[in-house]
Design goal:
Blueprint (H helix, E strand, L loop, with lengths): L13 E4 L4 E3 L7 E6 L6 H12 L1 H6 L2 E7 L3 H11 L4 E4 L4 H5 L3 E6 L2 E6 L2 E5 L5 E5 L7 H9 L1
Parallel strand pairs: 3-4, 4-5
Antiparallel strand pairs: 1-2, 1-5, 3-8, 6-7, 8-9
GO molecular function: thioredoxin peroxidase activity
Catalytic activity: a hydroperoxide + [thioredoxin]-dithiol = an alcohol + [thioredoxin]-disulfide + H2O
Keywords: Antioxidant, Disulfide bond, Oxidoreductase, Peroxidase, Redox-active center
Length: 153
């Protein structure tokens, strides 16, 4: 599994979004990308995080940011999540776990004493040249967009 750090080149990927359209990181060259990894569609923490990005999407977009969410849920799950919460940004279906492994966010988790493998909630800020400028490991799901803005202020 990859251990990425700030200053590393962001791993390239191509996968399907919530509409079944192929999306590549290269599609966003020249823009600053907020690439956030989350465990599961329509769960409390993941919904709070997605809705925070939704509620602040216009101000993020006005600053030139592209928001992309990634989980191991499939396209159908993403489509329902996007529709239910009116999410204005792309969600990538990584059901093969290639992207979560490339970014080093697939790992052991512990919930109520149950140990299992899953996506470790992490946000990467990728600059216009495709370099990771910031990594947020301790994501505040209710204020995730503000965490990004604070880092880049």
């Amino acid at each position: 599994m990859a251990t990425l750090k700030e200053g590393d080149k962001a791993p390239a990927f191509t996968a399907k979004d919530q509409n079944g359209k192929e999306v590549s990181l290269a599609d966003f060259k020249g823009k600053t990308v907020i690439l956030y990894f989350y465990p599961k569609d329509d769960t409390p923490g993941c919904t709070a995080e997605a809705c925070d990005f939704r509620d602040n999407y216009q101000s993020l977009a006005a600053k030139g940011f592209e928001v992309i969410g990634v989980s191991t849920d499939d396209e159908h799950s993403h489509k329902k999540f996007v529709t239910k919460y009116s999410l204005p940004f792309t969600l990538i279906a990584d059901d093969s776990q290639e992207i979560v492994n490339a970014y080093g966010v697939w790992g052991e988790k512990n919930n109520f004493g149950k140990v299992y493998m899953g996506t470790i909630r992490t946000t990467f800020i990728i600059d216009a040249q495709g370099t990771i400028s910031h990594i947020i490991n301790k994501v505040d799901t209710k204020n995730s967009s503000q965490q990004v803005l604070d880092l880049l202020a």
